[in-house]
């Protein structure tokens, strides 16, 4: 089992002919992802060969879905065109759109988030500004390295790309059902709570690891959700204990105002919900390993 993405997923790449799209499509195919085509309106009808696989470039997401049965789109489109690309995916009602692009204006993200909601949330958005999602040994939609861990029974949801990779490596002895990088922008599609709910319902996820960071109140809201809805063991880590107040730290959403959004406040909220919180990524991994072995 896994959440949101599995071996049956049929993936298209919006922006497949660009340098990033081509590079990461190559890596996704190498890791076993079933990429069935790409989208670029200016190059519609062409065929590109990636990792010895001939892929048709379609003029639109809806056309790609009709021809290939695609149910996942990974979006590698420059920021100024990203809003239109995501809206196109939403209008086509593709079940999952993974928005890798960094630097999308917040008002653009707000627009396509609201558009998805107005359309009945038929399209799950992961991102923007995220590493994507991987269900090891099944499918990989995004830029997460596929060779750092294997399949197992830990579920991971993280705001940070690099901390996603570190946690996957630290717990490679156990492995993961799915790892979801939700991104650190102020407005994102899939949240910690969405992933927690899915992992709680997944019979092959035994322990959940949640990585947050300073800024906003997503982790506090996740803590409330955990206390009321999650019965599986949850381990947490909050990045940013030493970050200076009032400064944006890497992610556009990682900004602290007064006591709101601080790492300490998030840690306390999570611990009050019964979540074991590590002081470092390695300590967090050790806590997860202890909980897993105690099951």
| Major sheet size, sense and barrel closure | 7 strands, mixed
Rounded to the nearest angstrom, the distance between the terminal CA atoms is 19 Å
Total number of helices: 9
Q: Could you state the oligomeric state of the chains shown?
A: single chain
Strand order of the largest sheet: 3-4-2-1-5-6-7
What does the radius of gyration come to?
Answer: 19 Å
Let me know the number of strands: 14
Tell me what portion of residues adopts beta-strand conformation.
15-25%
What is the ordering of alpha helices and beta strands? EHEEEHEHEHEEEEHEHEHEHEH
> Overall 3D geometry?
globular
Describe, in plain words, how this protein is organized in 3D:
- The chain is an alpha/beta fold.
- It is 35% helix and 23% strand.
- It has nine helices and 14 strands.
- It has helices at residues 19-30, 61-68, 79-91, 106-118, 161-170, 192-201, 218-229, 263-272, 281-294; strands at 11-14, 35-39, 47-50, 53-58, 72-75, 96-99, 124-126, 132-135, 139-142, 151-158, 176-181, 207-213, 234-239, 276-277.
- The strands form two sheets. A seven-stranded mixed sheet has the order 3-4-2-1-5-6-7. It has a seven-stranded mixed sheet with strand order 9-8-11-10-12-13-14, with helices on both faces.
- The chain is globular.
Topology:
Layout: E1 11-14, H1 19-30, E2 35-39, E3 47-50, E4 53-58, H2 61-68, E5 72-75, H3 79-91, E6 96-99, H4 106-118, E7 124-126, E8 132-135, E9 139-142, E10 151-158, H5 161-170, E11 176-181, H6 192-201, E12 207-213, H7 218-229, E13 234-239, H8 263-272, E14 276-277, H9 281-294
Parallel strand pairs: 1-2, 1-5, 2-4, 5-6, 6-7, 10-11, 10-12, 12-13, 13-14
Antiparallel strand pairs: 3-4, 8-9, 8-11
């Amino acid at each position: 089992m896994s959440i949101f993405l599995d071996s049956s997923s049929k993936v298209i790449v919006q922006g497949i002919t660009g340098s990033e799209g081509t590079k990461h499509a190559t890596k996704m195919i190498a890791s076993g992802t079933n990429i069935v085509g790409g989208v670029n309106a200016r190059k519609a009808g062409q065929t590109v060969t990636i990792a010895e696989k001939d892929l048709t470039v379609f003029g639109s997401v809806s056309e790609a879905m009709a021809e290939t049965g695609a149910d996942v789109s990974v979006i590698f489109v420059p920021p100024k065109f990203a809003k239109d690309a995501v809206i196109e995916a939403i209008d086509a009602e593709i079940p999952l759109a993974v928005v890798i692009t960094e630097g999308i204006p917040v008002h653009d993200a707000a627009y396509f988030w609201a558009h998805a909601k107005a359309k009945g949330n038929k399209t799950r958005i992961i991102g923007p500004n995220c590493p994507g999602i991987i269900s090891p040994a099944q499918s990989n939609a995004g830029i997460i390295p596929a060779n750092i861990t294997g399949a197992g029974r830990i579920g991971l949801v993280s705001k940070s790309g690099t901390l996603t990779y570190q946690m996957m490596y630290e717990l490679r002895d156990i492995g993961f059902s799915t790892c979801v990088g939700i991104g650190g922008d102020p407005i994102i599609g899939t949240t910690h709570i969405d992933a927690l709910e899915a992992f709680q319902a997944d019979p092959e996820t035994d322990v959940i690891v949640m990585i947050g960071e300073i800024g906003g109140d997503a982790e506090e809201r996740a803590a409330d959700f955990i206390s009321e809805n999650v019965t599986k063991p949850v381990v947490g880590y909050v990045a940013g204990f030493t970050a200076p107040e009032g400064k944006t730290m890497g992610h556009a959403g990682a900004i602290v105002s007064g006591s709101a959004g601080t790492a300490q406040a998030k840690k306390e909220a999570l611990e009050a919900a019964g979540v074991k919180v590590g002081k470092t990524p390695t300590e967090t991994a050790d806590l997860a390993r202890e909980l897993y072995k105690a099951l």
